[in-house]
Prior knowledge:
The protein is an alpha+beta fold. It has a single domain (2-69), classed as Alpha-Beta Plaits, CATH 3.30.70. The chain has helices at residues 13-24, 51-60, and strands at residues 2-7, 29-35, 40-45, 65-69. A hairpin with a 4-residue loop joins strand 2 and strand 3. The termini are close together.
Amino acid sequence: MHTEMEVLKMGCNACVEKVKKALEALPGVRSASVDLKGKRATVEHDDSVAPEALARAVTDAGYPASVISR
């Protein structure tokens, strides 16, 4: 499954790494890529992972996130 999210409040590469680690720490996430300039994260994951859970993990890491597409 493929989910794209908008991620706010990222300002540097350290922010990108925090978002990527927060996503990849979730069971069922295969890979995550984060675009600092575009304020987007793209995640490849198992069907068992709800897109809302991905957004919640990023928000909990300090970067407000919302699902754009699934």
